[in-house]
Amino acid sequence: MGDSPIQFHKIWIDQCEATEGIRERFGLRDALHYLIGEKLFSFVQASESDPDFATELPLFVAEIRRIFSAAEIRGFLNHLERTKFFAPPEPEPDFDDLDDDTDDEPWLENPVLGAKELLRFSRIRQLLLE
């Protein structure tokens, strides 16, 4: 046990428990988006530079595979791939409406960030579906 009373690399345990309640209250899609689309992506990113997170990653993935069926995971990843990573380009913006919502996805305008996100997505797909 380290010096820190809060072991952030163990946070996935609480996140998995929270997912059960999200599924019951808001449905499967929200539960998948929360645990895989948000938490697992952040966890994988942290694991790229933090050995504590890297050590926990297989346990987190195993728990996700226990919570969701392979078909549920595959369906969500296919949806994510279609809508986030390989979505057709947006039509030219209407210059009367310059509400810039690309702030939500900074990697859309930065090819290096985009490539990292895509590689991370590929790694997550492989981890969850192997």
Describe it for me?
- Helices cover 68% and strands 0% of the residues.
- The mean pLDDT is 85.
- By secondary structure, it is mainly α.
- The chain has one domain (8-79, 104-129).
- The longest helix is centred in the first third of the chain and has 20 residues, at 28-47.
**SS class:** mainly alpha
Count the DSSP helices: 5
Gyration radius over CA:
17 Å
**Stretches with pLDDT under 50, minimum 5 residues:** none
Give the proportion of residues in helices. Answer: 55-70%
The largest sheet, given as strand count, sense and whether it forms a barrel, is: none
Strand content: under 5%
Shape label? globular
Element-by-element helix/strand order: HHHHH
Kindly state the mean pLDDT as a whole number? 85
Distance between termini? 31 Å
